[in-house]
Structures are given as structure tokens and as C-alpha cells.
Write a structure and sequence with these properties.
heterodimer; A: 342 residues; alpha/beta; 13 helices; B: 279 residues; Elongation Factor Tu (Ef-tu), domain 3; seven-stranded mixed sheet; six-stranded antiparallel sheet; 15 strands
Chain lengths: 342, 279
């Protein structure tokens, strides 16, 4: 629709104007790493980040989210989060993941809690400036993204191209004044950034095209890799907690001090955790580590793709970094399936 | 973004009132409920509902009564977890909160019609199957013979014993029981459920078998049914998993790619025989 070119000062002024208007989350330094957090000043925004500790999914499906309030005698009422907010600096691979989760919560029976919150969000995607050590988005086709967000910002030699795609984006950008339209040269340079990112965000190389993963997994249920890798798995769940496409959850009641009122909350859960498939009475339908480990990769490469038509791994590499045992690299797992062993 | 119409909260349960409560065994209690809205639950045999006790939580529980009976619905709950434990403290007039019904149903209105019905139940596997038994009894002429094979750990663990006379007195109904361990009160059969199977004559040309019991039971019973020449699509299974959300989102009940809360809990054996995590 409209691409503006802002120098650093103008860009910061725009971010400040956004913060003045509404709740804004942005990528900020957290120790020597990065995280999405509420933004207090434009100077705190770090669009040069490599990857955040947790994906932005925490803003749409929070770690702990109130679904209902209850009174033990009166019953339950729904609670919805309807305050508009802005997210600054989502990387393309994380945006791809958000769009997948959108589909999954919308599919079949509509999840109003997720959807209502999601509808309040204006998302500003930022093309990757610094590659993280384990990113492989280039292999997954998610190093760049061209649809599904509100604004795309790309750093071109210190200036920012601000590409406004939606009405929500226009509203957010209405405080940009006196900025010139992007010139031909900048737009050409942006194309080079995209091409370059697709190439360089491949710190691990997948030996096959991602769209063959469902077929590959189809024949790999009894492959030795599951047992080999899972032997070292602590079932700690780090890989699922940092994953932008994991959305499994638990629901728990919390009673306040009156023992009369309380909240029903949705909290993150993960299929790698040992009790995930247990039922009351003690039977655990996925008791073995290797079965849980395999289930996760089948969700990423086969089960979720069967539901939404996309591979449910966007190549952020967070699981690789987070895994204490160094067994969670999806590229290693999928590559080992290419060479069939019995 | 792909969006949907968020005008209904799929997690919001509606109030219901406990009617009758009575102990069935040392571990299981019987409950009847009525929705406060005055509407019927609208379930079919084999489905389940999510039962909430505010402050304790929510759990998937099989519905044990047939919709042909009346506007109330019944459940039998084993004291096993937090919610089922709390349910054992419920008294008549107490409130619970219900979401559902959810899931697939026994094929009472299609595959079972006009056929001989063979129910094979272990322990509390009889609880969901009772909904189908009642349904068949209430529309007795729509079906052929009804054979009920029921196995329990001990005579004291048997459920619905006070209804057995009603079941048996209907036309063409056979009810056979066995226990794993007999006691001084028991003069009947002793042994696992498969020992009852040679005692009923299965006409493979016109039989639908329905199995529900502990996880260990299925493989052995299916083997026997296949020996009796039943086809894969004549065998139905009701499977247990933790159907936490009931709406195909939370992931807990998945067996491989299948969500038991939506694609189950009742499955045709031919649909799950290649699903590694099913049996």
C-alpha cells in the first residue's frame, strides 16, 4: 500500500507517539539476551536483536491467562482481554508462527479468548538485522514474510522503511508526518535484504524441502533416532516453552483467600512433560520419553500441517539453544530421517 | 489473520443441579443431574461432558444414561483425581457446572440398527456403555439380540447390579458376568473377560461389537472378535484419554494425529487399527 522512509530520529519519534497513545510491547535487552516487554521509551526498542528468549506468542496466549471468574455459589462468567495493544519488532518467522496459531484457535470451535485478544493487536514486523546462532528460518521459508501483519519495518542503511499494509497499520502510522515515500533505490535494497536473509538465516541446513516432511515422517515412526535422542531427554519441556508454534495448554482453578471466589486460568503446557497424557487414576498414555519426543516432531512435521497446510516449525532455533541436552535440533532430527535406517 | 466469530465462549460451563446421589461401590458413586436452564443436555449414547467444580477444576466424564429416558442425565464417577474426588462430596441439590456434550457416539442410529449387539465391558467401561444399553432397551424392536459381557475385579466392584434384572427381562437379552477374583458371595464365573466370549454365539453376518474397558483389555478382546470372524468395521471402541478442553485445542487427548475429544471417544476399529498410540 504505502512505504515511508524514516530516518532514525523520525522513527524514534513515531515509536514515542505510539507509546503515548496505547500499550506498546517491543523487543528490549534482557541481560545479554532479548525479550518482548512493555515499551517505555523508543530508545529501549532493539530492532537489531537476534532472537527473543520467548516468542511473541506470550502476548497472544499468555503463560497464565484468566478465562473465567467464578463464585462457588453463583457460577462462572467469561473474562476477555479487550485492550488494544501494539507489538513492535516481531521477526518474520515469529509472525509466520502467530498466523499458524491464529488458524488453530479459529479452526473448528472458535476460541473467543484467543481471538478477541488477537484482534486487538497491531503487529509491526521487523526484518531480521542480526542472525541468531541457531536460526534456520531460511530453510523453512520464513526468513521473510509478505502478508498477514499490519506494518513491516526494514532497516536500510540506518534508515527505516515503514511498509503499511492494513487499516490498523494506517491508524498506527497516522502520527508519521513529513516522511517521504520510499525511493526506488531503498525498495531495491529492501529486496536485497530479503534475498540475503533467506540465504543467511540458515545456521543449520535442512537437507530436504520442508514440504516433504509429512511424507518423511510417514515412514519414520519406528526410526531409531527417536530413542537415540530421547535417551538424553530430561523431559524438562524447555523446547516446548520457547517454541512459537507450541500452543498446548492446561486449565487450572485458583481460589482467592475467601475460598468462595476465584479464577479459571489457562496456562502453558507441553507434550514433552512426563504427565501430559496421564489420566486420573494414574495411567499414562505416553509414558515413554521417546514416545513424547517423537510426538512433538510429528506435531511439527505432520499432525499440525495436516490441519493447517503448513509445517509447524518456523526455524527460529530457540529449542536448539534452550535444550540442555543438545538433542532438540529439528534440522538434525529431520535430516537423520532422510537417510533411512532399520 | 484467519479469524472466527468469537461470540460464544467455548470454555464457559452452564449450571446444573445434582438430583440423586448414591454409592455404587467403594470407589464409584452414581449421580443424576439436571441443567438449570430446564433444557436437556442433548447428548447421544457414548458422549461425554466436562464437569466443573468451581475452585477444584474440570474433568471429562462419560454420560451413563440414554437420552430416551428423560431430561436429566446420569454419571458414575470413580474417585480417581481432584475433580472426581470432589464430586464424591456432592449431595442432592448441590451445583455443578457442565460443558458439552462432546465427542462421537455409539452407532445406535446407524450401524447398530437391525443388528445383534455385543457389548463387552470391563469395570467402569460399563458406565458409558450403559447409555447404549438403555437406548437399545427403549427401542428394543430396532435391534436384534443384545449380549452384554461384563467383567469386574471382584463381585463388589460390579456396577448397575440393581438394573440387571430389568436388562435381562427384556426380549433376547443375554448378560454374562465374570470376576477376576471371586469371594464367598460369588458362585459365577471367574476369569478375564475373554473367557466369556465362547459362551455367546456370535453371528458374524449381523453383529456389531462395542468394547469399553481398561487399556489392557482391548487387544485381547479384539483378537477374539476377529477369530469369531467379525470384520474391523463391525467393532467399535470407546477409548479413554484426558479430554481436557473437549474442543480439540489443548492437545492432552491426542493419540498420534487424532483428537479423542472430537474424533472419539467412540471409534470404529477399522479407523484406529493403524493408529499406533490408540491401543
Amino acid at each position: 500500500m504505502l512505504v515511508k522512509k524514516l530516518d532514525k530520529a523520525a522513527f524514534n519519534k513515531w515509536v514515542e507517539a505510539c507509546i503515548a497513545k496505547q500499550r506498546v510491547y517491543g523487543v528490549q535487552a534482557k541481560g545479554d539476551r532479548f525479550a518482548f516487554a512493555e515499551l517505555a521509551a523508543a530508545a529501549d526498542l532493539r530492532l537489531d536483536y537476534d532472537v527473543t528468549l520467548l516468542p511473541p506468542k506470550k502476548l497472544f496466549q499468555p503463560q497464565r491467562e484468566t478465562l473465567l471468574k467464578f463464585d462457588r455459589t453463583k457460577g462462572f462468567v467469561s473474562v476477555f482481554d479487550t485492550e488494544p495493544f501494539v507489538v513492535f519488532g516481531v521477526h518474520p518467522y515469529d509472525m509466520a508462527a502467530i498466523l499458524q496459531i491464529d488458524k488453530l484457535f479459529a479452526q473448528g470451535q472458535c476460541d473467543a479468548h484467543y481471538t478477541k485478544r488477537r484482534e486487538q493487536a497491531t503487529i509491526v514486523v521487523s526484518d531480521v538485522q542480526t542472525a541468531s546462532p541457531d536460526v534456520f528460518a531460511g530453510c523453512m521459508g520464513t526468513a521473510t514474510i509478505h502478508d498477514g501483519f499490519d506494518i513491516l519495518v526494514t532497516n536500510i542503511e540506518g534508515d527505516y522503511l515503514v511498509d503499511i499494509r492494513t487499516e490498523k497499520g494506517e491508524v498506527l502510522a497516522d502520527t508519521i508526518t513529513n516522511a517521504p515515500d520510499a525511493d526506488e533505490m531503498s525498495l531495491k535494497l529492501r529486496k536485497l535484504v530479503w534475498a540475503d536473509n533467506a540465504e543467511r538465516l540458515q545456521k543449520h541446513k535442512l537437507d530436504v524441502r520442508p514440504d516433504v516432511l509429512p511424507k518423511l515422517l510417514e515412514r519414520s515412526y519406528d526410526h531409531p533416532v527417536w530413542e537415540e535422542k530421547a535417551r538424553l531427554c530430561y523431559s524438562c519441556g524447555s523446547c516446548v516453552l520457547v517454541c512459537p508454534t507450541c500452543y498446548c495448554f492446561d486449565v487450572q482453578d485458583d481460589v482467592d483467600w475467601t475460598l468462595q471466589k476465584g479464577e479459571r486460568r489457562r496456562i502453558w503446557d507441553g507434550c514433552l512433560l512426563s504427565e501430559f497424557a496421564a489420566v486420573a487414576g494414574g495411567h499414562n498414555f505416553r509414558r515413554h520419553r521417546a514416545d513424547r519426543y517423537r510426538h512433538r516432531y510429528y506435531r511439527k512435521g505432520k499432525y499440525v500441517p495436516e490441519k493447517i497446510g503448513q509445517i509447524a516449525c518456523v526455524g527460529c532455533g530457540r529449542c536448539i539453544t534452550a535444550c540442555t541436552s543438545n538433542i532438540a535440533n529439528p534440522v538434525e532430527v529431520f535430516n537423520s530421517l532422510v537417510y533411512e535406517r532399520k | 489473520m484467519q479469524t472466527c466469530e468469537p461470540n460464544v465462549d467455548i470454555y464457559l460451563p452452564c449450571p446444573a443441579t445434582v438430583g440423586e446421589v448414591r454409592p455404587m461401590t467403594a470407589m464409584e458413586r452414581f449421580f443424576s443431574f439436571r441443567l438449570d436452564s430446564g433444557q436437556s443436555l442433548g447428548h447421544k449414547p457414548g458422549q461425554f461432558a466436562e464437569v466443573s467444580i468451581p475452585g477444584i477444576g474440570e474433568a471429562p466424564i462419560s454420560i451413563s444414561s440414554s437420552p430416551t429416558r428423560d431430561d436429566s442425565f446420569e454419571m458414575v464417577v470413580r474417585k480417581a483425581g481432584r475433580v472426581s474426588g470432589a464430586m464424591h462430596h456432592l449431595r442432592a441439590g448441590d451445583k455443578v457446572f457442565i460443558r458439552g456434550p462432546f465427542g462421537t457416539t455409539f452407532p445406535v442410529d446407524d450401524a447398530m440398527k437391525g443388528q445383534d449387539i455385543l457389548f463387552i465391558c470391563g469395570g467402569i467401561g460399563l458406565v458409558p456403555v450403559r447409555s447404549a444399553i438403555q437406548y437399545v432397551l427403549d427401542k428394543r424392536d430396532d435391534y436384534g439380540r443384545m449380549m452384554i459381557l461384563f467383567g469386574a475385579k471382584t463381585p463388589r466392584d460390579r456396577l448397575f447390579t440393581d438394573e440387571f434384572d430389568e436388562w435381562r427381562s427384556a426380549k433376547n437379552v443375554t448378560l454374562l458376568q465374570t470376576v477376576d477374583r471371586r469371594d464367598e458371595s460369588w458362585y459365577g464365573a471367574e476369569g478375564v473377560i475373554t473367557t466369556l466370549m465362547p459362551l455367546v454365539k456370535i453371528d458374524e453376518t449381523r453383529t456389531i461389537a462395542v468394547i469399553c474397558g481398561p487399556p489392557i483389555m482391548y487387544k485381547f478382546v479384539i483378537t477374539e472378535l476377529l477369530k469369531a470372524k467379525l470384520r474391523d468395521d463391525q467393532i467399535y471402541l470407546s477409548l479413554e484419554r484426558h479430554m481436557k478442553c473437549g474442543v480439540g485445542k489443548c492437545g492432552h487427548c491426542q493419540m498420534d494425529n487424532i483428537y479423542v475429544c472430537q474424533d472419539g471417544p467412540v471409534f470404529k476399529f477399522s479407523d484406529v487399527k493403524d493408529v499406533e498410540e490408540a491401543l
